[in-house]
TrEMBL record:
Catalytic reaction(s) noted: (2R)-3-phosphoglycerate + NAD(+) = 3-phosphooxypyruvate + NADH + H(+); (R)-2-hydroxyglutarate + NAD(+) = 2-oxoglutarate + NADH + H(+)
The protein's name in its UniProt record: 2-oxoglutarate reductase
UniProt signal peptide: none
GO molecular function (one): NAD binding
Residue runs in coiled coils: none
Any GO BP: L-serine biosynthetic process
Annotated function: Catalyzes the reversible oxidation of 3-phospho-D-glycerate to 3-phosphonooxypyruvate, the first step of the phosphorylated L-serine biosynthesis pathway. Also catalyzes the reversible oxidation of 2-hydroxyglutarate to 2-oxoglutarate.
Pfam families per record: 2-Hacid_dh, 2-Hacid_dh_C
Amino acid sequence: MTSPQDIQQLSSNFNAVGLSTSPGVVSASPNDSYLSQVRQRSFSTAKHAKPLKPFSTGDIKILLLENVNETAREIFAEQGYQVEFHKSSLPEDELIEKIKDVHAIGIRSKTKLTEKVLKHAKNLIIIGCFCIGTNQVDLEYAAKSGVAVFNSPFSNSRSVAELVIAEIITLARQLGDRSLEMHTGTWNKVSNKCWEIRGKTLGIVGYGHIGSQLSVLAEAFGMNVIYYDVLMIMALGSAKQVRTLNDLLAQADFVTLHVPENPDTKNLISSPQLAAMKDGAYLINASRGTVVDIPALVEAMKLGKLAGAALDVYPQEPGKNGPNFTNELNSWATELTSLRNIILTPHIGGSTEEAQSAIGIEVGTALTKYINEGTSTGAVNFPEVALRALDLDQENSVRVLYIHQNVPGVLKTVNNILGNHNIEKQFSDSRGEIAYLMADISDVDASDIKSLYEQLEHTPYKIVTRLLY
Ligand SMILES: NC(=O)c1ccc[n+]([C@@H]2O[C@H](COP(=O)([O-])OP(=O)(O)OC[C@H]3O[C@@H](n4cnc5c(N)ncnc54)[C@H](O)[C@@H]3O)[C@@H](O)[C@H]2O)c1
């Protein structure tokens, strides 16, 4: 066991990350101003908090793969963590070697953290997925091993909403076709069936993070917005919720889909729904590929029922860039690509520099808060537990972080161990077979810390013990 490390100085640097901008200074780009706002929000709560040092962990080592955004690397550097950074993912044998002694790993979608890989990770406490999806990680095995997993599901909502606005105008003005024609030397100046979007009705299916952003943007363009959601959701601006999907389909000039992928949304838009749409309406799907029955869409386009469509997502998507969008992948690919006024994009709805930066900050901050304070809010595989920070003057206080199997009697055992001290606050939650207890205890001498740690380590249902002091 390594001795406790003094990271007081490093922890106080934590507060310095919220780079404040002077009043009156105009930032160089919207990105800069947005990012500094996010940083200030992320770190402002740490102002009067006691910086905590880990007992028994040694220096925190982080392995970052797949070119994780520099916003995250800046956050870890400020913390003084030891960061090993790689631009790409690693072959499995190299990954197994590298993961052995790190406390945290940051990945995107290509690195597969399977049980085979994770069982070599003896010191790992946290995995950061710097992306939306988490199916590249064996979440259950990670939880059973006491490893929390975080991701960033909503950092790219605005990027998707902006893409959809662009597609609405592009479809209404047939810009895709005109541009293709010009690229092949054809001048085709037409106004027939080209429209302004002002005064048209946008029907949003799924009024969550993306759908509601889009609602605000569309109204600014003078569109009437209606939406359908399985939940009753408060409208933004003058938008109106409709009762059924068919009500929406009957009224909307543009239908745009922003629902999750699940059994209920599979082929949510198929032949009957396409038939229920207005003649000459447009369909946009930037949600998930399974939500639209694409052969039915091809049919509706061929019959002239729809005037256009935009697809960003597909049931099967190529694993890498290149000439891979073929009939072998999806049997209807050639038919789809030969249609007029149909915009096809390679799942780029959330792919912007701003989204990548925001993901770096969100996941980087979540990892730091879990390592430094034990806060697991937002974890995807783990009980979500948080306690307010210890104050600067609580010198002899210790934060106990205890991950254990969710069985009766554990809390009694733990509270017996903590019982000689004053338990100032305590919170425990469980998720499936895993439970997580966080407690702040006071009146702890430096000499008590080792004994507390060892007693907790020897309890029968313990998975991971960490003490911060
Ligand atoms: N194209 C891209 O690059 C990209 C990027 C980010 C997200 N997405 C996808 O966009 C979709 C929406 O993302 P979000 O962040 O807005 O999700 P969200 O969870 O914030 O919102 C989804 C909304 O859909 C509603 N809903 C669920 N089932 C429904 C149904 N059967 N009918 C109507 N409404 C239903 C929910 O109540 C919720 O309000 C997701 O599928 C997500 O994976 C795509």
